[in-house]
Please model this.
Amino acid sequence: MNNEKKGLMLGLIAVIGFGLTLPVTRLVVVYLDPIFISSGRAVIAATIAGLWLLLTKEIIPSKKQILQLIIVALGVVIGFPILSAWAMKTVPASHGGVVLGIQPLITATVGAKIGKEQPSLGFWLSSILGATLVISYVFLQEVGNLLWGDIALLGAAIAAAIGYAVGGILAREIGGWNVICWALVLSLPIILVPSIVTAPEEIYKLPINIWVSFLYLALVSQLFALFFWNKSLALGGVARVSQTLLIQPFITIAASQILIGEEINTTTVIFAWLVVTTVAISRRMPIYENKNATNINSN
Model:
């Protein structure tokens, strides 16, 4: 199995993990403050990450790599979790999942800008088509007006896409696991206080399903899925593997129905088929090495 296929396989595993994030967040946001959800899950993940780095005696990243890790942390540890958790107070998880369908295009764009990838015109056209489909889906739903939740989700998509692209490129140097572990550890001084301040007073009285859901967000959404994702981008390339994110909205929609009872209509099924088709098309489009790109790993 070549690196591209390995990257796509790991990317799919990560996307499945990501796809459950919004419905699980929607479930716990009824009981927990959005700030606690986002910062608390990161504190748990950062604790595990810090212990791992100590046990394995990993080399401390260089100053340049630390700056890159800060960008990753701002995107996937702070920006996306806070904005997406806040959005889940105002819009359905299935709706939010489709709005996040814009992520592949943003991720590919950032990856092409800072990396050495130059996607072909056909690749861009298929990516734009996929993004157009998911945006069209939003305005065909009952929640057709632009809501603050949609704006938050757009910000979350941008934050995550930047973190994904930088993390995927950095993973080629220090490994996918180290990228997310160091990003979490660097975030700890920022997220620790908000998690303590916003923690529920009687946290021990939370239902068991809320505890399990919160641990999912901490261990899978914030840690293991990002490890697989960074590794997949390093192996298969940011632009190529990022297109697996187009499948994420429909994993989210299915999970929303199963976990929290949101309905799936015929329109959703049609758009799911159309978007998955664009993924298949984009995979066949060439991606070249861009020697003129701004390389984030250059000195």
